[in-house]
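Changelog-adjacent note: as of this version, every example in the card shows the full chain rather than a window. The one below runs 53 residues end to end.
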Amino acid sequence: MPLPHFLILVLAVILAAGLTIWAASAVGVPMLALGLVALMAAAVAHLAMREHH
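Full-length structure tokens:
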């Protein structure tokens, strides 16, 4: 992947994270709940990518 594409991808991820945090705080979702949801989503993604032998 060329460097400009990688940097644009990193920028898009950072902007999406910022938009998510802003939208959640605007609605009134506690940051603790948002963090727990993100942690659970990361755990599900990790477990889903495991290869079963």
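Structural remarks: Residues 14 and 42 are 16 Å apart (CA to CA).
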